[in-house]
Amino acid sequence: MFRKHRRVFSYLQHFIVWLSLRDSNVDLLEELENACAFPKIERRERPMRTTKNLEKRTQNRNQWLSILKSSQAESLKKVRGTVIGARLYSWLYRYDRKWLNIHKPKRASNYQNHRVDWQARDRQIAKELLSIKNLAEGRIYDPRHSKSWFASKIAKKSLIEKKLYKLPLCSLFFDRYSESVEEYQTRRLSRVMVQLIECKDVLRPVCEIERLAGLSRARSRKPAREILRLDIPAWQRAAALS
Known about the structure:
Layout: H1 11-21, H2 28-36, H3 54-69, H4 76-80, H5 83-95, H6 97-102, H7 118-135, H8 147-153, H9 157-163, H10 168-177, H11 181-198, H12 206-212, H13 222-241
Helix pairs in contact: 3-5, 7-10, 8-9, 11-13, 12-13
């Protein structure tokens, strides 16, 4: 706790040591008020050096201004990169700093504004998702139309996973058009039935239809189980009678 290191000062550690070394109890609020009552110590600014040689000062100022007017004055670093610029800067910094601070190139900023217009991006991505949804409408042989599937189709899977909270239109799209597991299982059964109709083999046992759809009793959701238990047998009976 007392070791000298670069960590910031911890008032809690200081307070624990204080309590352990003092015999009486400490009222923290009272001690803080006493500490705040101490007068503030004003730091005295060190006086800047000046030169009595006014002629030399004027000469160096003029030379410095001439350098600033040249093409070398894009930044202070470039000015100081020259021999005369480094010499003049050193002299003016030592003997004429106030004037130098006024007459020097502005600090170059490397900041670039790369902020994203998330509202515009949200509209753009939502339009792309709608176009994918319209193209995939009625395609029963597709994999499940999940959020991940839509995002991979527009090559923005990582963006949507990380920044969906900034894309309200896209979030609304996924809530409305993403295919649930129940809907996907129903579509898989529809796909199998279409294949059986094309092959004129509609009287297959229900267990085989379930297997062809890649379903099982353990994984089937309630809508798929209802279709297998009620709808397909009823449809097969109607097909047999016709």
